[in-house]
Design brief:
280 residues, alpha+beta, Endonuclease, Chain A, 2 domains, 8 helices
Length: 280
């Protein structure tokens, strides 16, 4: 892979934007988290059994993306647990911690009784991946509202189109599209290059976890084909966009097809029996 991928930073963020300053004592680190969260009580996390512990935010830079990602961390009985929060984009560590805590509150991530069960199982399980790197990749797989999705939505919206987000085109089929145009029966899927096996950027995994990852990507590809087939059989049109695609160009492609179907529907309704009779 090259560093020309549009989602990669051209250079690594400065250490001052994410690394913990050297020499901080335990109490100083706690104070740093308290200040970012808005107080010590704001860091309390509610566990399923009703117990409360104090959480903190960890900032990391993944080598490939060169972006800063935030993780919510807490300990129970000496064991550390984590949950992915999201990407942060500020210039200083202080601002990035504050941004991460804001996301935690907004998404209600401190209440484990309403947390995503899938994420919690992934954090606590060792069965699906055998290395810390694998677990980091899974935690970083944000299901919706990713940067490419937001860019595509914004570009489509700017062209005057309105749509539904993160919706099943067919209620009885458990397949969710990123953008849905119900009247035109168009479903738009924005596929991640890694998770969906992009021919341009995906490279088969190697090493101890190769079998797991290669099988997973192969399963995702098969599921994509099955999704397309199911929707097409039900009269839907599927448009797939890669995360590396230019969002402006992708939006224009979507808009072109939506407008085509709108025009076709308008022509059909205007060709009424009354008009035909008058011509005879």
């Amino acid at each position: 892979m090259t560093n020309s991928h549009p989602l990669w930073k051209e250079s690594k963020p400065p250490d001052t934007a994410w690394k913990t300053p050297r020499g901080l004592s335990r109490s100083e680190r706690a104070a740093e988290q308290d200040n970012a969260a808005g107080g010590r009580e704001a860091r309390e996390i509610l566990l399923p059994e009703g117990r409360k512990v104090h959480a903190s935010i960890a900032l990391r830079v993944l080598r490939q993306s060169r972006r800063i990602y935030a993780y919510l961390r807490w300990s129970v009985n000496g064991k550390t647990h984590e949950r992915y929060v999201g990407e942060v984009t500020r210039d200083t560590r202080e601002a990035n911690l504050a941004e991460a805590w804001y996301t935690v509150r907004r998404e209600n991530l401190l209440d484990m009784n309403t947390s995503d069960d899938t994420v919690n199982r992934a954090v606590n399980s060792e069965s699906w991946a055998t290395t810390p790197a694998s677990r980091t990749i899974m935690r970083a797989n944000k299901r919706r509202d990713t940067r490419p999705e937001k860019a595509l939505r914004s570009a489509v919206h700017a062209l005057g189109l309105r749509y539904r987000v993160d919706t099943r085109p067919i209620k009885d089929v458990r397949r969710t599209a990123d953008l849905v145009f119900p009247k035109q029966k168009i479903a738009v899927f924005l596929d991640g290059c890694f998770w969906h096996g992009c021919d341009e950027h995906y490279r088969p995994a190697k090493g101890t976890t190769a079998t797991f990852w290669n099988n997973k990507i192969a399963d995702n590809r098969r599921r994509d084909l099955d999704t397309d087939r199911r929707l097409q059989q039900a009269g839907w049109e599927v448009i797939r966009v890669w995360e590396h695609d230019d969002p402006i160009h992708a939006a224009e492609r979507v808009a072109h097809r939506v407008n085509q179907l709108r025009s076709s529907a308008h022509d059909h309704t205007s060709d009424s029996p009354h008009d035909s009779k008058g011509d005879n």
